[in-house]
Amino acid sequence: MIVLGIETSCDETSAAVLRDGEAILSNLVYSQTNLHARYGGVMPEAASRDHLRKLPGLLDEALATAGIGWGEIALVGVTYGPGLVGPLLVGMAHAAGIAVARNIPLVGVNHLAAHLFAHKLSEPEVGPPFLGLIVSGGHTLLAAVPRWGKYKVVGGTRDDAAGEALDKVGRLLGLGYPAGPRMDELAHEGDPTAIPFPRPMIESGLDMSFAGLKTAAVYWLRDRPKTSVPDLCASYLEAVVDVLAEKAVRAARRLSLDRIVVVGGVAANRRLREALPARASEREIEVSFPPPSLCTDNAAIVAACAHHRFTELGCTGSLALSPDPNLSLDG
Fold first, then answer.
1. How far apart are CA 182 and CA 167, in angstroms?
2. Strand order from edge to edge, sheet including 150-156
3. From 24's CA, which of 15, 78, 230, 330 has a CA 20 to 30 Å away?
4. pLDDT at 331 over 70
5. pLDDT confidence of residue 317
6. Confidence bin at 145 (pLDDT 50/70/90)
């Protein structure tokens, strides 16, 4: 089965073609980073217009790269939430048009569930059960995955997502947008013990909070403006990673799971990839990360999730599908 995936939930326009839900024939991603850098964050109206401009050509390019004709597409998968309503509508309208024109099924995909399918694409032989840590600019949560298609959220952030907390402090340092990757680079040059940043809620439960940590960094910069930028990046990132690692390992132990799967944009972070496996191994828990190309928002994971929903769960979709900006993973 040839599946076409479409992803436009935020500021990446992506189109992908998969065979049988596993073989990636093409996976093209156009980033709007340069567009939104002038605003210091994502401007929803500008994002919607840019998706509208870029998506048609990207779809043609994805099929050409895959060596597939439009007549060979058997299923269309598209993200319908969570995300920004304008960008979601652009992708869904294109997907619905393709489904009608080709008389093929349309399956809506939960963006958070799609991220978990990055693991299925990168390590198809290692399936559930596992604990999923979804960590990105917009989302940070822990979910038990007893089987594909079944998810139970057991913890999450009460305020800022981890990626958002990194980006906001990075912008204060003048690192541009998105600041997270640049903070990761600078942290490699700094001392992670230089600044005693707090680890909010690290001793309690499975929920997380990063707003207080962000405020601590703001006050530190206000009172010590000459602080070494690499040292601040290293110390701040270490605090974020400590919280993520502690909560993930605690959740896996409570649920008697021996594997943690880390997905989302922050899953590409170098320090998280070093620290979490080291801490988890002490508890005989294995950790899996997909390749960086599957960590960010992309349509290959959408297509993989759509294929599973259609072939295994019997989801046939509907042209009446509506965007759900606040869609939850286990809702």
1. 9
2. 150-156, 140-147, 130-135, 259-263, 286-288
3. 330
4. no
5. 79
6. very high
Find the distance separating the first CA and the last CA of the chain, reported in whole Å. 28
Calculate the CA 264 to chain-centre distance: 3
**Number of other residues whose CB lies within 10 A of the CB of residue 27:** 24
Burial state string for 254-283 with b = 16 or more CB within 10 A and e = fewer than 16:
ebebebbbbbbbbbbbebbbebbbebbeee
Amino acid at 159: D
The structural domains of the chain, ordered by start, are 2-115+295-311 (3.30.420.40), 128-289 (3.30.420.40)
Residue where the block lists tokens 């320090």: 271
The DSSP string of 68-112 is --GGG--EEEEEEESS-HHHHHHHHHHHHHHHHHHT--EEEEEHH
Give the whole-angstrom CA distance, residue 149 versus residue 253: 22
Task: For tokens 């997907």, name the residue.
Answer: 95
The dihedral of CA 213, 113, 55, 326: what is its sign?
negative
> Measured at the alpha carbon of residue 315, what is the angle toward residues 313 and 317, in degrees to the nearest 5?
165
Least reliable range by pLDDT among 32-36, 75-79, 149-153, 326-330: 32-36
